[in-house]
Design a protein that fits this description.
The chain is of the alpha+beta class and about 650 residues long. It folds into 3 domains: about 20-220, Histidine kinase-like ATPase, C-terminal domain (Heat Shock Protein 90), CATH 3.30.565; about 230-390, Ribosomal Protein S5, domain 2; about 410-540 and about 595-630, Rossmann fold. Helix content is about 35%, strand content about 20%. A hairpin with a 2-residue loop joins strand 5 (about 130-140) and strand 6. The two termini are about 50 Å apart.
């Protein structure tokens, strides 16, 4: 692109000042203007209070969703400094923190040894994206206040408005998200509760009080875990059957970094390692996870050899054998964390790997020596896992040999598309042969492929990989996606960038969706993490407006339609199952990209997704019933 120099001058250069960049490009700072970005505002404010707790100055945080939809976050920390800033003598430090990007106590000063916050933009971004924000500070016996409006414009200066109650210190931020910025401004209590609980687990002894003061869902929840991450491991394993009751827990501290690890095995087949750096979830792992996994493999093999639990002729146990059924929390704190990866959730600091490796080598070895019964159970489970791995490899090799004999290696019932560009290709996984036939006729044969599956696939939550690979439906799924399985899965090789689950909107359909999502989450996790998995949402109703048929997604859409069309005279038809729709109706409602409704499946919190899979697909019927009753009403966030 060329610029005409006759019209391009200094006045064409736009300089965004203060918080203007945030208002213009909110997605750059909080990810999106949908529900994820909305809740990110709360995390930014709460993270500041958690930093005070990590620094040892705060032991209680209160988070309240107000009756009018605002959010109030209060802590009993030191309070943001209220004195004038040396670089800006006409402004208080507190005002600068609220109105300037990259201003705060975490950039080289002595205020914090370690802190969270990925970008250092924090509360100023919250201010920029709020229609109103009130800052209150209790410090040195005085109660200070300052109000901001319309995206962070201060109404005057920070003033003393009274005495601090009973010698209290701390900061209170109350904000109202700007409806001009966000698609919706209604906070979801369950999302906030889940995040606050994790923060309480990671900060031993910190009390976090959540209160929802809205009339629709008034409630109060208090989190405080004196066991810290030990309690976190127990919580995650509560929906599973533990291999033994004890939780291994150890920590090590150096001058500018520290690590704490808690771990316990269960009788299941999936590893659940969740790592955090300064309270931030590192879903892509990093140096701390690398050090832990390497040391864990070495320690268990050394112990097994020393106790003759592995014979001389036996091969060493692999890391994946030892980690089968392991639930572990790795929490590190360090100065200046370096976050890498596609989503800035991978820890890159090399020195932390050495610390975690050293701590695990020494402290876990001691724990195994002191707990020989549990140590023996770990080795025994790992040995059985190793045998299953060998059997799975043989089954996988057999599957590969079959594929080679078949030529392209694609399952016979797959109706593939003609395009070979994965970016434009879609795979519909369709329940039942009759629905598969309609879908085949309804699709665009250039870009849309159909894979019918018969009935309910194997529940992979309760099956080892060797058994799973013998299942015909599972084999068809693996071959169709074309990128391997488990540790061999390579997301670069996927044949479709949209994998769409298409099942009836009834109990059986929900069960099939859950089985498929569990399979993808457990065995093709990068497919879910990359946002390639979708659930089709066929409409529940149709009605006539004149001669035109209108489709309505659910009861809420039906009520909205009636509110907008109070004189509507026609009946509403409840749509039939997928197999009973003709191909034209299926194309119109579910297949055509310009008219359909898809729900993208994302994994925002791996630990939570892990827990949900275990609850929904595990053996505990009562837990499953409670979960469904709690979450079924919120259709925006829960589809299965």
């Amino acid at each position: 692109m060329s610029i005409d120099s006759t019209t391009y001058s200094a006045e064409d250069i736009t300089v965004l000042e203060g918080l203007e960049p945030v208002r213009m490009r909110p997605g750059m700072y909080i990810g999106s203007t949908g529900p994820t970005g909305l809740h990110h505002l709360i995390w930014e404010v709460v993270d500041n209070s958690v930093d005070e707790a990590m620094a040892g100055h705060c032991d209680r945080i209160d988070v309240e969703i107000l009756a009018d939809g605002g959010c109030k976050v209060s802590d009993n920390g030191r309070g943001i400094p209220t004195d004038k800033h040396p670089q800006f003598p006409d402004k208080s430090a507190a005002e600068i923190v609220l109105t300037t990007l990259h201003a705060g106590g975490k950039f080289g000063g002595a205020g914090y040894k370690v802190s969270g916050g990925l970008h250092g933009v924090g509360v100023s971004v919250v201010n920029a994206l709020s229609s109103k924000l009130i800052l209150e500070i209790d410090r040195e016996g005085k109660h200070h206040a300052l109000e901001f409006r319309d995206g962070g414009i201060p109404k005057g200066k920070l003033k003393v408005v009274g005495d601090a109650p009973r010698g209290r210190t701390g900061t209170t931020v109350t904000f109202w998200p700007d409806p001009k910025v966000f698609e919706e401004t209604d906070f979801r209590a369950q999302t906030v509760i889940e995040r606050l609980q994790v923060m309480a687990f990671l900060n031993k002894g910190l009390e976090i009080v959540f209160k929802d003061s809205r009339q629709s869902g008034a409630q109060k929840v208090i989190f405080k875990y004196n066991g810290g991450i030990v309690d976190y491991v127990k919580h995650l394993n509560a929906v599973k059957e533990s291999l033994f009751r004890k939780v291994a827990n150890f920590e090590q501290v150096e001058q500018v970094q520290e690590v704490e690890i808690a771990m316990q095995w269960n009788t299941g087949f999936h590893e659940s390692i969740h790592s955090f750096a300064n309270g931030i979830s590192t879903t892509e792992g990093g140096m701390h996870e690398e050090g832990f996994k390497k040391a864990l493999t070495n320690v268990v093999n050394r112990y097994a050899r020393a106790r003759n639990l592995l014979k001389e002729k036996d091969d060493n146990l692999l890391g994946e054998d030892i980690r089968e059924g392991l639930t572990a929390i790795i929490s590190v704190r360090l100065k200046d964390p370096q976050f890498e990866g596609q989503t800035k959730s991978k820890l890159g600091n090399v020195p932390i790997r050495s610390l975690v490796e050293k701590a695990t080598n020494e402290k876990l070895a001691e724990w195994l020596e002191e707990n020989p019964r549990e140590a023996s159970q770990i080795v025994q489970k790992s040995t059985i896992a190793a045998r299953a791995r060998v059997a799975a490899r043989q089954a996988r090799d057999l599957t590969r040999r079959k594929s080679a004999l078949d030529g392209a290696g694609l399952p016979g019932k797959l109706v593939d598309c003609s395009s070979r560009d994965p970016r434009e290709c879609e795979l519909f996984i369709v329940e039942g042969n009759s629905a598969g036939g309609s879908a085949k006729d309804a699709r665009d044969p250039r870009t849309q492929a159909i894979l019918p599956i018969r009935g309910k696939i194997l529940n992979v939550e309760r099956a080892r990989i060797d058994k799973m690979l013998k299942n015909a439906e599972i084999q068809a799924l693996i071959a169709a996606v074309g990128a391997g399985l488990a540790d061999d899965f390579d997301v670069e090789k996927i044949r479709y960038h949209k994998v769409i689950l298409l099942a009836d909107a009834d109990v059986d359909g929900s069960h099939i969706r859950t089985l498929l999502l569990t399979f993808f989450f457990r065995q093709m996790k990068p497919l879910v993490e990359g946002g390639f998995v979708y659930v089709a949402q066929p409409p529940l109703y149709s009605t006539l407006v004149g001669k035109e048929k209108v489709y309505l997604k659910d009861d809420f859409s039906k009520e909205s339609f009636l509110a907008s069309n109070p004189d509507h005279r026609h009946d509403f038809q409840r749509l039939k199952g997928l197999g009973e729709m003709d191909f034209g109706e299926l194309r119109e409602t579910t297949i055509d990209p310009s008219k359909r409704s898809l729900l993208q499946i994302s994994v925002e919190q791996a630990a939570l997704a892990d827990e949900v899979c275990s609850v929904l697909m595990g053996d505990d019927v009562e837990l499953r019933r409670q979960f469904i009753q709690t979450n079924a009403k919120d259709v925006r966030f829960l589809d299965v």
